[in-house]
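Teaching assistant here, posting this on the class forum so everyone can see the example we discussed in section. The complex has two components, and the goal was to see what a joint structure prediction looks like when all of them are supplied at once.
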Amino acid sequence: MDNGDVLSHDARNDLLRFTLVGSVDDGKSTLIGRLLHDASGVHEDQLASIRKASERKGMTGDEIDFSLITDGLKAEREQGITIDVAYRYFTTPRRKFIIADTPGHEQYTRNMVTGASTADLAVILLDARHGALPQSRRHGFVASLLGVSHMVVAVNKMDLVGYSHDVFERVRVEYAAFAAKLQVHDTSFIPISALCGDNVVERSARMPWYQGSTLLNYLETVHIASDRNLIDLRFPIQYVLSAQQDFRGYCGSVASGVLRRGDEVLGLPSGQRTRIKTVVTFDGEIDEAYPPQAVTLTLEDDIDLSRGDMLVHPNNLPNLDETIDTMLVWMDEDASEAGKRYLIKQTTRMVPAVLTKVHYAIDVNTLHRKQSERLNLNDIGRAVMELRRPLLTDTYAKNRATGSLILVDRMTNRTVAAGMIIDRDPAVKSARSSFTVPPLKSAQFAERSGDVLRVDRERLLGQKGAVLWFTGLSGSGKSTLALAVEKRLMGEGRLAYILDGDNLRNSLCADLAFSPEDRAENIRRAGEVAALFADAGVITLAAFISPYRADRERVRGLLPEGRFFEIFLDVPLEICEGRDPKGLYRKARAGQLRDFTGFDAPYEPPVCPDLTLATHQLSLDEAIHRIEALLESRGIVETSGRYES
Amino acid sequence: MAYTWTHLRQLEAESIYILREVAAEFERPVLLYSVGKDSSVLVRLSQKAFYPRKIPFPLLHVDTTYKFSEMYDFRDSFVKEIGARLEVYTFEEAIKGGVSPFTLGTQKCCAVLKTQALLNALREGGFDAAVGGARREEEKSRAKERIYSFRDRFGQWDPKNQRPELWNLYNSRINKGESIRVFPLSNWTELDIWQYIQQERIHINSLYFAREREVIERDGQLIMADRPIPLKDGEIPRRVLCRFRTLGCFPCTGAVRSSAKTVAEIVEEVKVTRYSERITRVIDHDAEGSMEEKKREGYF
């Protein structure tokens, strides 16, 4: 082994994570290129390939397009824009830096938020010629929203305004007036030219009127250690080393506060007290641990504690809430939906939750509130969430680690929003009874002890309630197949029931037409009814064209796991048109019918159906057989004899 | 104030947090062990994360059979020393079918013996999370890589379809057949790795240290004939004082001229060096954006 004994000086550097926000036009990529290059972060071979690319772009001689250092993916290079957060690294003798390089256009609010979520500091870049444009205000707002405590406003392109002190002062005063409204502790202004290198790494001789730090010098010296919350001990349990050889350990990282051996602690949510026996690490036992240190604890007593629980000091408790108020930043193409169930991940806990109501959205350019019932991609707004199990939280302003959460869509598994917990508005609390959507606890599948439960009905019926959702073009055989399956099931002593356009369109949905909105509403109602039937224990055969994927997925979300089966009748349009059992295709061809699926309205086939049946290639018997096999394999009916539990 | 944390301690804490999340949230995680320095650091971090217990998931080495002989010796003694479970996967059929860097060239060979082999190994092992030592600093297209990188049922990476990643809240939700590649070293640089190896006295392969080795010069790379390789016209083996900055397959991994014989000397060398480390990998330079192409297909 050839390891040297002495650590070189800069192995003891600390770390600064900052986000750099600005648009392509502000010269953001050039600034990063300049920082990396002048602070010796760019390697020769990377520089050589950048020179090559600069020449291809028509630049000449020694001119280097610094922005090419930072453009990552091929598609983006071709479009000449940066569309995702990119992370850059450089080290000086004083500090290691991680830059979250985030694009500044409005449609990329999501990226800006991502970059700011882990940042100690934000550098907001603006163009001296344009001053404090709405977009620069937006950047400041986002940094403030994400709890970034230090903000540097880099007033760029000073070379294009003759290095004028007056111009800089005008921009500074204008932006400072705005920044005073934000929750940022510390704001600095630095006049720079990224292109010419003024006040980035080297002090500029062309702006003698500026006495402050260069940008790099500021970044190297800004004091960040005191930004950490060292007061409120929060230790979320991340992983449990179960008892073995007398050792039972609780692994986790200190989210905030200081943890010491011998401390009296409370396990939450159980509320049991004990003391910290040892603080174990690979490098030996230690006396105390600070955020974000990762340690393993042993406790004096055996208390009820598992992943997602938390250890705290008994006189300093977090909130234990089943309803939380959040500022959400929406990050998904699919807008938020009131009443929809999501998963929330907060610290090491994941719980199902319902987004009950959006109070308002914020116009990120004016900071004005606007009425809105939903949040679209890149929207920021205030929303209330009802949790199935309580979370241990603090407000984000008080504690970044326990006040932050992500929202995950249960169907697509995508991360759809980032949330910051805020203080509950008393007016909202008292208005709870007026929520249009009931909280989870009274939702239809919650089991109330003492009442008759779904399992009781299922035992009575000898089967499990489920929804078989037949989707496909008109004429693909949905009703025919549903009727035949119903008949077969009845013959075997099973209770089944058909829901289709015939019995719903003329009754519950008689008020609806065929626009996309009305179709969505039709399917929503059909889904709700189907879910109630399934809860009653009935094998429910729902036959609807249901052309939109999102509508069908919403129905899936209404049912417990494993009780919704999407059956796709995959038949080409020509064959359906040839069958034309109701003469609808003829009418559509003749122009007497509008918004007809397959003609002038789209059909979105399922991505991952539970069963696909090409009814034009199968006999009816074969199709029925495959559905029966599905029901057996998923435990809805038992293979032999009746279902008993 | 007594409480100041070095950047290495912060990086370490972040990586341990990630490794514990993986162990807690996935059913069958695996650690991709490539015998190199980053793997050695990753293994040490895993030991730290679960101490005093053993690492709760196996190590997987995707072996092309063209690794340097010293790597095999090192691998076996290292794994034995730390008491880890090691699984080795080799794409036997392809090798029997004649796939080699000499017949197919680096790019095609890699596509089969590394990328395809890795996908086979992950599928056959039923692994839902594969932990790797890739770092964002290594290559341009990696700068935007997530710490949890989502892969579809075919192990493919879609740069346009990655989940936003905020704070330290990683989204581990996947459907059956899909998987997550996890990169706990995302925020480490080459210098961090070497400083950490120095600080922690981590065992690494002797190929990283300079000594005189018999090499030929091919396309600007110093290639060591670990085992006999077909020589081209004008190629004459010479003894050169050199070391390896990254380890891979011997026919496709170049050495760099260096006299750094200790970790401390390497740290100094990395500080002043003006070449990024992946330059010695033949595969990265095949075509512009070539790393991105390979990642889409499932390369690490």
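For the discussion questions: The radius of gyration of chain B is 19 Å. The mean pLDDT of chain B is 89. Think about how each of these relates to the inputs above.
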